[in-house]
Amino acid sequence: MEFRTIVDIPESQWKIEPMERMLFVGSCFADNIGKRFTDEHFRTVVNPYGVMYNPASILHTVKRLMDDNAMPFQEDEQGTAVFTLGTNHVYILKETGEIVDNCRKRPQRLFQEKELSIDECADYLRQAIDCILSRYPKVRFILTVSPIRYRKYGYHGSQLSKATLLLAIDKLIYDLPLRAANYFPSYEIMNDELRDYRFYKPDMLHPSDQAVDYIFERLADAYFSDATRAFLKEWEPIREALNHRPLHPESEEYQRFKQQTEERLHAFEEKYASHSLR
User: Fold this and answer.
1) pLDDT, tens digit, for every residue of 201-231?
2) Please, how many CA atoms are within 13 Å of residue 154, restricted to the half-sphere of its CB?
3) CA–CA separation, 54 and 165 (whole Å)
4) Which residues contact 270 (CB under 8 A, 6 or more apart)?
5) 196 three-class SS
6) What does residue 120 show for φ and ψ, rounded to 5 degrees?
7) Lowest CB count within 10 Å: 85, 221, 222, 233, which one?
8) Which of 189, 178, 176, 195 is nearest to 219 (CA)?
9) Strands 21-26 vs 79-85: parallel, antiparallel or unpaired
10) How far apart, in whole angstroms, are the C-alpha atoms of residue 197 and residue 186?
């Protein structure tokens, strides 16, 4: 007897390869998932200018990274960008009419709050994707909606905001001429498979570490190549060795251990460095 509903996630037609170059931009859930990829030795950039909750701010980050030549990608390599959308609410600085990414604790009276429409959300995301593809044509995109609820909008308002984002992503993916972007159901996994407050942090709003680990595993099932699975098995003992905290770090024995671990790491990176060249 099955006591929960499992979200069906089709296997991706394209795969994430070992040590792939990856960009994570979006809500604090992007931080959580991006950290998992960083820990697993992918070459990642995660919210370099801070958390970005809405599609307009995601576009701002992409443009700034391009202007700063700070993208993690290479023109001749495949890579993956993950955009995690938190809300369709934006704040506009009245003085300039511009959407701000962070109010920086300035008085509320200086800003006007606005809810982006489905079309506006889709357009900002399309611009972000086009901006990256204009220089890095081999990058693929994973779009997802953060499962974190926003209490300040009211729980009904939070659901409406998430619905707008879901419809915008669906519209965008349908309109794209190439299958360059996929939707990954983080929001649905949290609300259907993990429908229990034990999978939330004490604030009852943010997913627990266990929930993030499970969502990462579901993403891995759909997107990791066979080479990546082998890569992760080889990486695990090296990661454990790198994280080892000795009782006597000055000892000759530990120095030998440290040198051997660095040699293993170098050989490991040499072995897998070319996997994302396609």
Assistant:
1) 999 888 999 999 999 999 999 999 999 999 9
2) 3
3) 9
4) none
5) coil
6) -65, -45
7) 233
8) 189
9) parallel
10) 16
